[in-house]
Design a protein that fits this description.
By secondary structure, this protein is an alpha/beta fold. It has a domain of 181 residues: P-loop containing nucleotide triphosphate hydrolases (Rossmann fold, 3-Layer(aba) Sandwich), CATH 3.40.50.300. 38% of the residues lie in helices and 22% in strands. The termini are far apart. The structure holds adenosine-5'-diphosphate and magnesium ion.
C-alpha cells in the first residue's frame, strides 16, 4: 500500500509516520492516518497487532519512538503531562482497563471525572447531570447501585455514561463488545451509533468483532504487523483482495499459522513416549 502523507489539519486526530518500538520490537511501523471529525473509525486486526498501543498514542498515553500525533491541528505527542490532563478532557475513554470502581456507586463513578476537572460544583446540578448521562445509555435509576450488582452489559453502559460525563468531542473505545453476548453487544453498538449521531461525537473503536465494525464504522482500518493493510468503508473491506484481510474478516486461520499449528501438533505427539505413561 502506498504510504500516504498527512498534514496536521487533515483530521481531528492525525498521526504522522508513527513508529513505536518496545525494546527492539517494532509494534507500530510507520503509520500515517488522519481521522475525520464526527465519524466512527474502527481499528481492526488480530490480537497483539498493536491496536491498543495505537489508540493510546492518540491521547499520548504512549509516546512515539518516532513520528508525530496531532489533535485539532496541535502537536500532542511531546506535551508534558500537566498539559495533557486538560487536553484529555476533550476525550472520553471506554478502555478494557478503565473498568468501573467497584467500591463506588454508579453515581460516584460517573461523577469521578467531573470532580477531577471541575472544582466548584453545585450538587443539584450534579444530580441532574448524572441523571441525564445515565438516561442517554438507558440506565437512569441505577445511581445507587454498585458495579457488582450489574450485568456485564449494564457495567459497559455505565462506563459509557462516565465516558461522556465531560461532554467529550471524541470517544476512544477499546474492545467495547468483547466478552458480551451478541444481544448485549448490539446494545453497545447501538449506543455508539446513537452518540455519534446525536452528539456528533468522533469515535475511534478498537475491535476484533467484525459484526460490530461493519455496523458502527464509517471507516475500517486493519493493522497487521504494525502496518495499515486495509483502509476503507465496510464494502471496501469485505471485497478487499488481500488474503490477510479476508482471513481475518472471515475468521479463518492463515496458511502460515495453520502450518505452525500442525508442526506444534507433531512435536506434541513425539514428546510423549510410552514410558511417560508407565
Ligand atoms: N508497555 C509495553 N511494553 C512492551 N510491550 C508492549 C507494551 N504494550 C504492548 N506491548 C506489546 O505490543 C504488542 C501490541 O500490543 P497491543 O496494542 O496491546 O495489541 P492489540 O492489538 O491486541 O491491542 C503486543 O505484542 C504487546 O505485548
Ligand atoms: Mg488491545
Amino acid at each position: 500500500m502506498a504510504r500516504k502523507t498527512v498534514n496536521p489539519d487533515d483530521g481531528i486526530l492525525v498521526v504522522q509516520q508513527l513508529i513505536k518500538r518496545f525494546g527492539s520490537r517494532v509494534v507500530l511501523d510507520t503509520i500515517s492516518l488522519a481521522i475525520e471529525a464526527g465519524k466512527t473509525t474502527a481499528i481492526i486486526g488480530p490480537s497483539g497487532c498493536g491496536k491498543t498501543v495505537f489508540m493510546k498514542h492518540l491521547i499520548a498515553l504512549e509516546r512515539p519512538s518516532k513520528g508525530k500525533v496531532f489533535f485539532d491541528g496541535q502537536r500532542i505527542d511531546n506535551l508534558p503531562e500537566r498539559k495533557l490532563a486538560k487536553l484529555r478532557t476533550h476525550f472520553g475513554f471506554c478502555f478494557q482497563m478503565s473498568a468501573l470502581f467497584d467500591s463506588l456507586s454508579v453515581f460516584e463513578n460517573i461523577v469521578f471525572p467531573i470532580r477531577q476537572h471541575i472544582k466548584t460544583i453545585d450538587e443539584n446540578a450534579l444530580d441532574e447531570l448524572v441523571k441525564h448521562k445515565l438516561a442517554v445509555v438507558g440506565m437512569d435509576g441505577f445511581q445507587r447501585h454498585y458495579p457488582a450488582e450489574l450485568s456485564g452489559g449494564q457495567r459497559k453502559r455505565v462506563a459509557l455514561a462516565r465516558a461522556i460525563a465531560l461532554n467529550p468531542e471524541i470517544i476512544l473505545y477499546d474492545e467495547p463488545t468483547t466478552g458480551l453476548d451478541p444481544i448485549t453487544s448490539d446494545v453497545i453498538n447501538e449506543l455508539i451509533i446513537k452518540l455519534q449521531k446525536e452528539l456528533k461525537i468522533t469515535s475511534v473503536v478498537v475491535t476484533h468483532d467484525m459484526n460490530s465494525a461493519y455496523k458502527i464504522a464509517d471507516r475500517i482500518i486493519m493493522l497487521h504487523k504494525g502496518k495499515v493493510i486495509a483502509d476503507g468503508n465496510a464494502g471496501h473491506i469485505r471485497e478487499h483482495p488481500n488474503d490477510l484481510v479476508q482471513q481475518f474478516i472471515q475468521g479463518k486461520v492463515g496458511q502460515a499459522e495453520l502450518a505452525a499449528l500442525r508442526l506444534g501438533g507433531t512435536r506434541f505427539e513425539t514428546q510423549f513416549l510410552p514410558a511417560d505413561f508407565q
